[in-house]
């Protein structure tokens, strides 16, 4: 049976998650991108709680007036998640790219988050 690209991504993500976990001192910054949107969460895996989340669907993002989910949108989402995290005194995170290639929108989001003060 032939494996599709989404199956391959899920397999990569499972492999990454075996050695990557968010703890209270350094929670996990989890990125998911679909064709139309990009979603980011900061998760504490010990309690299973989402501490901060932003996406291209969130109110804060829509107030900026950016359309779509391309690289400019990913940069805006990265800046928003970093701003919210720093406001909650979260400065260090573990980056979870969810099996996506570190390129394009995922890289733009990570770079913007780093510029706004997140360390990973």
Note down, in words, how this protein is organized:
The chain is α+β, with helices and mostly antiparallel strands and 120 residues long. The protein has one domain: Nucleotidyltransferase, domain 5. It is built from four helices and four strands, in the order αβββααβα. The chain has a four-stranded mixed sheet with strand order 3-2-1-4. β2 and β3 form a beta hairpin. α3 runs parallel beside α4. The chain is globular, with a radius of gyration of 14 Å. 32% of the residues are buried. The mean pLDDT is 95.
Question: Could you give the topology of this structure?
Answer:
Blueprint: H1 5-19, E1 28-33, E2 38-44, E3 49-55, H2 59-63, H3 71-87, E4 94-96, H4 105-115
Parallel strand pairs: 1-4
Antiparallel strand pairs: 1-2, 2-3
Helix pairs in contact: 3-4
What low-confidence regions span 5 or more consecutive residues with pLDDT below 50? none
CATH topology: Nucleotidyltransferase, domain 5
CATH class: Alpha Beta
Q: Order of strands in the sheet with the most strands?
A: 3-2-1-4
How helical, in percent, are the residues?
40-55%
The radius of gyration over CA amounts to 14 Å
Beta-strand content estimate: 15-25%
How far do the termini sit from each other? 38 Å
- Level-2 CATH architecture: 2-Layer Sandwich
| Count of DSSP-assigned helices | 4
**Major beta sheet summary:** 4 strands, mixed
